[in-house]
Write a structure and sequence with these properties.
Oligomer: homodimer
Structural class of chain A: alpha+beta
Number of domains of chain A: 1
Largest interface: A-B, 23 and 23 residues
Shape of chain A: globular
CATH architecture of chain A: 2-Layer Sandwich
Strand order of the largest sheet of chain A: 1-6-5-4-3-2
Distance between the termini of chain A: 52 Å
Number of strands of chain A: 6
Largest sheet of chain A: 6 strands, antiparallel
Strand content of chain A: 35-45%
CATH superfamily of chain A: START domain
CATH topology of chain A: Alpha-D-Glucose-1,6-Bisphosphate, Chain A, domain 4
Number of helices of chain A: 3
């Protein structure tokens, strides 16, 4: 079996000095998501479809097509993350992936785990770029959570 | 909070055309582990301590100090993976990590998931090297599993 049979994930964990409810708001309000991730039309409901507006690349218009696959406030959120174009080879190649967030309370804060799974051999460029990018995005999520009016 | 608060994991998933029991043998017999990973003195028992003999680097003798933290045949295995030296900066810096294997039966085979977690800011070089290396190691695990006398 070739190396193409393997899938990789990007995982970032970070303990944030906020209660889960404040982080949950930053994860699930479109206006706040835009602050730490991208322009979007997120809908906070299981099964909802929404999009992110990423940077266009080659034949890909930059639209990430998403669907909420887990919605369990304030601990678990997941969405399908699909984008790319069949004619692109590098960063904008077809990506059929999932982003999953898990919030676990800890003394003094919340452990936030982000797993972006589903990177195949054709997604090497996206994997490498996003492997470096997600830690910074998660840091911005912490900053965006600070400002929310949680409990 | 600085970027040093974030931890990253390497995750590789691969569906192998073998039953879980055959893969479990390759994961837990020292002679077989050497075929796909490294020389070792693995002991198949919860709480057992063992070592891998990796390549020495700077002040680090290359010994990875491990301890079995999950042992649930034939589905879950985890071990602490500790190595490196305080005086090393790049690949051989102190690494306090965990390797976790999860085997899930599927029609015609087994989904194998490997997660190596605990890479901090000081482990960037090791993360990048092992991020490229683990998919090949998991491919070799598939080959090593083929030869075991499973059920």
């Amino acid at each position: 079996m070739s190396d193409e049979a393997a899938l990789r994930s990007i995982v970032v964990e970070r303990v944030m000095p906020h209660p889960p409810e404040k982080i949950w708001r930053a994860l699930t309000e479109a206006r706040l998501i835009e602050q730490w991730l991208m322009k979007n039309d997120f809908v906070p409901r299981l099964g909802a479809r929404f999009t992110f507006a990423a940077k266009p690349m080659g034949d890909w218009d930059g639209v990430v097509h998403c669907e909420v696959t887990e919605f369990d406030p304030p601990t678990r959120l997941a969405y399908a993350w699909r984008g790319g174009s069949r004619t692109n080879r590098a960063y904008g190649a077809v990506l059929d992936s999932v982003v999953q967030w898990t919030l676990t309370p800890e003394p003094g804060g919340t452990r936030v785990r982000m797993e972006h799974s589903g990177f195949g051999a054709q997604n090497r460029a996206a994997f490498e770029a996003m492997s470096g990018g997600w830690p910074r995005v998660v840091e911005r999520l912490e900053q965006a959570s600070r400002g929310t009016t949680g409990p």
